[in-house]
């Protein structure tokens, strides 16, 4: 058998056509589609082609069996002719199955993407409320509680950013099938917004931590001064003023002058705490210091008058 009448030659021509078509299907499976819908449409087109070529392969197999019976001396050559297209078909079908499974996961991934963006948006709103809502603090403990809350908000943001960063790899995988440029840009934008808010919260947290230390120190100082003033009051009320010597009165005046200066220093710290606007006004330490300062000034005035009487 020679030329076009040769069954091997005829089969070779059909196999070449089939191989070319299967290679085209493989190229289609390696393409990126603009959207998920278009990727699904392309996949349907691929399956239609694969189904058609599968039917062609079955026909070729039947034809090979018939030819092998008529030309047993060329049977092995005829069978070998089908090996490559069969392998190409199996590879293409496997790729299509993998693409089908992958596309099936994308809607869930995109739902997760929406959830991640929603979490970031909710966190940004919560962070805004912690930063800019009116605050009232009475003690260092209140300030510490607020600082602890800011730290928790900051910790949440770190978790959210890690989730967003991890999801970038998911979008990169999906990009092999369809374009995810918008989603990647949106994720990047959201991450930048969270990062910017993180810095703002961290700045305020540092101010609160510093304020806690300063207010705690002032509370301890004023508590000590309060006790000292109470002792001076007790001394002045327990003895006859005339029984106090001039030297003793001068010692009391010196002590009260020191207490007054310390209380005035506490007062001057009020504007140096760098708390949210007006927040320091509610701190009890300053009102207590003011009350104590007034008491000290009254005691100073009384003691000075008595001292002057002794000098007459």
Automatic annotation (TrEMBL):
Annotated transmembrane regions: none
Statement: the UniProt record of this protein carries the keyword Phosphoprotein: yes
Regions annotated as coiled coil: 208-235
SUPFAM superfamilies: Spectrin repeat
Subcellular compartments: Endomembrane system
Superkingdom in the source lineage: Eukaryota
Keyword field: Coiled coil, Membrane, Phosphoprotein, Repeat
Main location: membrane
Protein name: Nesprin-2 KASH domain-containing protein 2
Organism: Takifugu flavidus (sansaifugu)
